[in-house]
Prior knowledge:
It is elongated and about 85 Å long. Among the domains are: 1-152, Alpha Horseshoe (Serine Threonine Protein Phosphatase 5, Tetratricopeptide repeat), CATH 1.25.40; 299-368, no CATH class. By secondary structure, it is mainly alpha-helical. The protein is built from 20 helices and no strands.
Amino acid sequence: MTANPRYSSKTDIYALGVVMGELMDEADEPPDEYRTLWKRCMEKDPEKRPTLDEIVATFRDIPDLDDSLDNGQGIETLITQAHNDYKEGQRLYRGEGTDINLAEAAERFRRAAKLGLKQAQYDLGMMYQRGEGILREPAKAIEWLQKAADQGYAPAQTSLGMAFRDGQGVPQDTDKAHALLEAATKQGYVCAYCNLAEMYGHGHGVEQNFTKAIELYRKAADLECTAAQVLLGVFYATGTGVRQDYMETARFVRRAAEKGHPEAMCKLGFMYSNGQGVPEDHKKAQEWWHKAAEADNREAQCHVGLLYINGEGVLKDKQKGLNWLTRAKQQGDEYARYLHDVLSGHEYRGEREARTLPMIQTVILLDF
């Protein structure tokens, strides 16, 4: 469900501690050395956890360890089982080679999560948060996200941070939100950069700081995050926190548009139409609007509808124009709804129609 961010090897030691705890629950009487090692693995501070070499050396010094734990099943077997359950959960969640089965995917994630696999803990937490395949339970979502975050898993730190920011399933705590997002950014996690940038941009729980917001968005943009590229374009277009520079706007918006970001394609169309940061080119403007409209950007659909209705750069075709307005209207675009109702009603013809279109076009052009 997510890409793996960078993490410390000590996060895996914590996961091993969780597995050791599961095994210990099944043991008749685990050796004292085993209990001591388990406690060290579960230290909240990663630096206090043992190294892999220390763990291996301790296991070798404990006689008949496998026989005293989980009927001789052994840690390595359970770790393999956790990874297998997680892979099967992903397959069921995505419908890869089988039908999508969210309930069974959640159960597979649960098995792996109970054995300490942080990716499974995160995915299970998100399924509880969204109510996918299981009953939506924000408290349980937080419980599993916290377990994964405690292992330093950046996606979990980010989602948990947003939960604290918004008070979703936990009391609102912007300090905790900031700390969690900050921890995730140190691992280079793109979503954390964007969410922390948003906090600085809006002054949400921190002092508003556009310079810091732009710095974080730029890091996300450098990792090819199209949403961050579009937002940087907006900062440069409006001169917020930076000197207004339409060429920089065009540079960032184009990067996102070329990756298929619908809003970016629409904005780039307006920039070509108005000659902002790029040479004025109405043909290119219409090409980008059409691409954005086909990608279900409702603003572009509204504008393409107007192009056909007015015959601007295309053959005049009122029905085709109304079809595009219908698509935008179905997505909740109020301008498209108004235009569609005006243009499709027999009582709204001639002069009133001619007066309405320029007014709506002017509103749409105020894009940035």
